[in-house]
Amino acid sequence: MIKRTKTLQNVLIVHQILFICGLALMIGLQKTVLFFTRRPKLKGTAAFTSGIVLILLRWPVIGFLVELYGIFILFGDFFATIGNFAGNIPVVGPYIQRALFRASEASGGRRNAELPV
Question: What's the Cα-to-Cα distance from 109 to each of 5, 11, 18, 24, 117, rounded to whole Å?
């Protein structure tokens, strides 16, 4: 159990680094900083950062759940856009689109009000 948790912790730490670096490379460093520091996004940023800290403090499962909540708050407006795109996938598209649309409505449903790009 201890070894498994340590492996999970290492994987999640690498995930944090790659996620933030990938976002910065895709939209630029300045837009990334502006996105995470916007007033409506501060709650999600705090949860995301707290999740990273919890993972580093050897609480990987709880840290991941807190981080997942932060990602949901930060990128909840984008779920409707993803759903529209995923709706074009054969066979499973309509199911993905429906699930992401419901998730978007649950997070406020503003539909692309403050996308980073």
Answer: 36, 32, 28, 25, 18
pLDDT digits (tens, 9 = 90+) for 46-92: 999 999 889 888 888 898 899 999 988 888 877 777 777 777 888 88
Q: Which amino acid is at 13?
A: I
Q: What residues have CB less than 8 Å from 19, skipping those under 6 apart? A: none
List the structure tokens of 24. 């910065």
Spatial distance between the Cα atoms of 8 and 82, rounded to a whole number of angstroms? 28
Report CA-CA distances (Å) from 42 to 64, 96, 97, 116: 18, 28, 28, 14
CB 76 within 8 A of CB 27: no
Please state, in angstroms and rounded to a whole number, the distance separating the CA atoms of residues 79 and 96: 10
Closest CA to 111 of 77, 87, 86: 77
- Categorize the per-residue pLDDT at 4 as very low, low, confident or very high, splitting at 50, 70 and 90: low
Give every CB contact of residue 16 below 8 A, 6+ residues apart in sequence.
52, 55, 67
